[in-house]
């Protein structure tokens, strides 16, 4: 972490803005960019939580109308993301945004809810958050992070870079299941206007970045959105669907008929803390909490380290500033997600886009959080930006994070192989947790095989065994007779 000038005010001193070589302009731009690259969650989370049914065949909120459920989840998603991101900025003092976790929401909607009521499922999320908070307060979570070999930490950052790159490529439509990779060049083919829009956005981002234009990523997102709106107005592309596979992803870029909407916050507090223990039994409930917890536990650790490395915020010992506070807020976000009935909230790797724009402090998170709160009332405007306009930023930030690979010695197979598995499995399995788990377990196995057991920290033993249980959760459930 580089030190520059003396703080100009108490606010500056608290957030360490000058000490981290930043300024208000960078922080505000970074906050906006982070919001634009992850605002999709305000639309996507409701499509997952709001359209699923519980064991009684009810949509969340006990609504018979799916539209009403989606509307309620939209408002609660924006509210919880806004409050928790502001808390991350104010207490964690770190440029990392928080929102409903993708993957975790799918687990809640399609695995837990069909076995119990929505209130029971959200109670499990609250319990998971409380368990993680306890682990943070006892110092266990930080101790685990410090026990991880340094080069393996860098591998986590590189893997996350590739992970958000693949997110960008998939969301943009460049990479699609069952469709060959699109070939570029004079003899290649761009399949549809949205793909062309993504390419235009990527070119704009690259040009602005290499020319070191301030606000490059934010400018590219806004400029590409304008291009998308013009294309939609002329070509009438429409939304992507089975009948229209070359349509826009998530949002159709056109100016909305209405600018504002009134948020419905009726889902807040609709959880039953221990109802799941009656619904599916104690053992199954504990395994469900463990599955949720392990993903939350390591995703945030990996994300925070990757972001801190990219922002050059690590101290001389390789530690993240205010790490304990960051973890406390992240744990509270998991609890808040259950309380708000929107699934566990967690840190977002898309925050790297804001860091790429210059964000270095929690001020950027305050900006992002405020925008989420505003989005509750201006949700129609949030739905203007399509995937194809925002995802070029993720691809470029993935490149920036990829540069950390220079810190890894691949000539040493004992660290090179675990690092490779960590890096490869994150994008290929679409899971940060899977990559971290594969790296940890393989590192321990190699140490055992080479007679270097004494080099294994006891915490690495514990978390490696935990990951083995995590990977084998299905056969364990079947063995115990609690498989769903």
Automatic annotation (TrEMBL):
The chain crosses the membrane at residues 30-49, 69-87, 94-115, 121-140, 152-170, 190-210, 217-239, 273-294, 363-383, 420-446, 458-476. Keywords: Membrane, Transmembrane, Transmembrane helix, Transport. InterPro entries: Azg-like (IPR045018), NCS2 (IPR006043). GO terms for cellular component: endomembrane system; plasma membrane. PANTHER family: XANTHINE/URACIL PERMEASE C887.17-RELATED, XANTHINE_URACIL PERMEASE C887.17-RELATED. Belongs to the nucleobase:cation symporter-2 (NCS2) (TC 2.A.40) family. Azg-like subfamily. This is Unannotated protein. It comes from freshwater metagenome.
